[in-house]
Amino acid sequence: MPSSVRAAISRRTSSIFVSRPDLTPPKVTLTHVAAAAKLQYLFLGLANSGPGQGGAMIMDTRGDLVWFSPDTANNSKMDFQLQSYRGEPVLTWFQGKVVRGGHGEGVVVIADSSYRTIHTIRAWDGLTADFHDFVVTPQGTALVTAFRTVDMDLSALGGPADGWLLSGVAQEIDIATGKLPFSWDSLDHVPLSGRRSAHGQHTQPPDTRPVITRTWLAGPSFAGT
Known about the structure:
Blueprint: E1 5-14, E2 26-33, E3 41-46, E4 55-60, E5 65-70, E6 76-85, E7 88-99, E8 103-111, E9 117-121, E10 129-136, E11 141-152, E12 163-174, E13 182-185, H1 186-189, E14 199-201, E15 215-218, E16 221-224
Antiparallel strand pairs: 1-2, 3-4, 4-5, 6-7, 7-8, 8-9, 10-11, 11-12, 12-13, 12-14, 15-16
């Protein structure tokens, strides 16, 4: 949220709509909007921690609710934002679940200005999209993050022989065709001795401290952090 706008989310109360009793978003109160603020709408991803539903919310700078799409029992919406695809404004978000350690397993979604889903993008190579970043590029591709759990002998690093390693993955996916022009896996590029990857025994779930949190196109090249 920009510094020119401040808001408070009430978890004690939720909105109720006679025409849509199934929707109970938390009430959001704008506490400050700078006089010079050019922002017309706020795009909020609300955690499902109740009371009130979590989900994706749009509100205007008067504090009025414009649109709300609730989370479900199996899918949370995160990284909700306004982007551009083929010259048109679109809404984008991650949809899925958050697993232990703090990364996501799901898909990324693009909706048009009528809130209609026009693309659901899935990661390649048996992976699922993560919530940390989803960028729509001017080239019509989607930059998404994911994680791969790899069985590995870690005894040379002081770990178990029957161990695993969590590798950060970034993929560029053609939105229209679903094809994969580019994929980058930290396991192929970052030495094990210098990586901050999680590792452990199969009796324990992977920790997810190392993450790719931001992706972008640097000229013709793909970059991330």
